Amino acid sequence: MGGVVEVKQRIEQLRSLLNYHNHRYYVLDSPEISDEEYDELMRELSQLESEHPELITSDSPTQRIGAPPAEEFGVVEHPEPLLSLANVFSYEDLAAWHRRASNLLGGSDFDLVCEPKIDGLAVALTYIDGLLVTGATRGDGYRGENITQNLKTVRSIPLSVSGKKAPPKFEVRGEVYIPKEGFRKLNEERAREGLPLFANPRNAAAGSVRQLDSSITAKRPLDIFVYGLGPVEGKAVPDTHWEIMQYLKSLGFKVNPEITLCRTIDEAEEYHQKWVEGRESWPYEADGMVVKVNSIAFQGELGAVAHEPRWAIAYKFPAVQGTTRLIDIGINVGRTGSLNPYAILEPVRVGGVVISSAALHNEEDIHRKDIRIGDTVIVQRAGEVIPEIVSPVVSKRTGKEKVFHMPSHCPVCGAEVIKPEDEAMHRCTNSACPSQALEKIKHFVSRGAMDIDGVGEKLCQTLFEQGLVKDVADLYYLKDKKEQLLGLEKMADKSVSNALDSIDASRDRPLARVIFALGILHVGEEYAELLAENFLSVDELSKASQEQLLSLPSIGPKIADSIVTFFRQKGNKRVIKKLRKAGVKLGKEKVEEAKPEELPLAGLEFVITGKLKSSARSEAEARIKALGGKASSDVTKKTSYVVVGADPGSKVAKAGKLGVKRINEAEFMELLTQSSKAK
Ligand code: IVH
User: Ligand 1 centre and the CA of 85: distance in Å?
Assistant: First the structure.
């Protein structure tokens, strides 16, 4: 592309195109272009930005991918507190709330707005001159955590809004949540990876936005509904809640389509009834309906008492709970050897579905809730998918209930069970435990892993039980056992060739999938991707030292340890060797070395002054060089950037004098990350 002016224009054009399509896709749910076309625009923008890092802005759509891990979150003081809501559970109590408000307003009539009360977590987003500058959690209502980087990864949160329409400074409040479907998938993935499951979508959302590594947040299916304005400066905004919501929608924010204007309390009751019946079909969890006084002036008059506004109330939906008996506690052994307890329940109907089992996360959890075998228990459908036990009904105890203890030996293979001190789960110590072996095979063929769709869970079980597949590598040797396959029940010619074809097609899956498919404890899809970005092959990864692994972002000692241990085990070494022999691709093609002048930082000269927090100076300089840039120690007119660390020296002043651009460590790291990606 031609001169800098043209590049700048194209970058701006690409950004507004991407923002437009992003809004259509994530907020309006009505895309105009295909995912491929969107990706193509994004690629072009990333490319141009890596060639012109000085043109990267904080609201560029490329900035949604996450920033380097934070050590901890900063504190944000809320200029106006984020209040909570009082609850009511019946029409009578709702009517009483309404009467009180009406009395306080001197008997005036007033409109109401009803909206679903989303089960997520409250956030406050501050925009200055149209740009998202801060995103914070509610915290204690007065002080929250600064989670701006993480919220920037939520696609339905606009990074910028039209400067003309928006006030120069304003705060939007809303609820960040994970939709039911995304929650189901996230937990499915975690189950496959042997990670503890999230109890409900709210916990999953809260856990996701509080990740120190925002690239993990970026992979979580987070969404938002905004539900109000905080402080606004410099421009008049509408004077009713209803119009404010329309106004926010016009600025590009996502407003819940269910929100309804009601003239009377009976109309609100009608909506409540309707929503109680219909909420199962909503794509997100809601635990009630928020009823708000529409007029902002009236809201002001009503004010708040004890952190709760008098102008709004949460009218809860009846809980989807039921009572039944806990017959026994069973145990499943997972692929990583974890002993997963589950409740065997007397079948009970809860919210239209019959429940006969429920997840019990681990022994500690069972004891914390004081759940005993034989107890009458309250069960609840959480997150619409996994039923859970809320608590025992202690008053119904007969004295015959039994306290549960994890077995000391694996219920499948009889090997010793241990509980690592820093983990909640008990584990079977036998890596050849049949249950683990079968679960490993199921994991290997699954969708996020090698994606062998001709071999489902049932077939895995049969193959394993018949001794045809003892480990994952055996799958690739099945083609020599066609006769035996055809002899299996329900295996016709077609399904055999289907299975063999899809096994064959899985030989050249990308490295990240292969790493994930190996089933290394604690290495889920996200970490597998990270490892694949940093190692060329399984072989190279298997030789990595603990220190080498720890130097990667977001890999802690637990994961590093697990990787090193995995590759040390003889059984695993053997399986990898067998996979290689079978022609399974265990690495990526070596990337052609780019010519130095084509590297993203070519022609740029950096001077680092002061101490860097994230890496040693020598390491940072090595990264600059690897990306085609030059690192030097003297500031001259030729210097492109002075990177200012902690306690910088006189070089900062010199840069100022010479008009050399100064950037802080975070900006510098971002530049390196972006450039590495471009490379
Ligand atoms: S209004 C003072 N509207 O519920 C008004 N809150 O229990 C408070 N919530 O912290 C907020 N959906 O996290 C409002 N449509 C909605 C909401 C909503 C969910 C949450 C919010 C708040 C909590 C209060």
Answer: 7
Binned at pLDDT 50, 70 and 90, residue 591 comes out as: very low
- Calculate the CA dihedral of residues 531, 519, 589, 623 and round it to 10 degrees: 10
Note the pLDDT of residue 68.
56
Pure H helices in 290-379: 296-302, 363-368
pLDDT of residue 2: 60
- Of 175, 225, 311, the residue with max ligand 1 atoms within 8 A of its CB, to mutate for a pocket test, comes to 175
Residues near ligand 1 (Cβ within 6 A): 83-85, 115, 117-118, 122, 138, 175, 227-228, 290, 309, 312, 314
> Which of 290, 302, 313 is the pocket-test mutation for ligand 1 (most atoms within 8 Å of CB)?
290
Q: Between vectors from CA 161 to CA 158 and to CA 164, what angle results, nearest 5°?
A: 170
For residue 122, the CA-to-ligand 1 centroid distance in Å is 7
Residue 93 CA, ligand 1 centroid: distance in Å = 19
| Ligand 1 atom 16, closest CA | 117
Secondary structure string (H, E, C) spanning 457-505: HHHHHHHHHCCCCCCHHHHHHHHHHHHHHHCCCCCCHHHHHHHHHHHHH
Least confident of 12-26, 109-123, 261-275, 396-410: 12-26
What domains can be seen in the chain, in order of their start residue?
A: 2-64 (1.10.287.610), 76-316 (3.30.470.30), 321-403 (2.40.50.140), 434-508 (1.10.150.20), 511-581 (1.10.150.20), 596-678 (3.40.50.10190)
Q: What is the pLDDT of residue 291?
A: 98
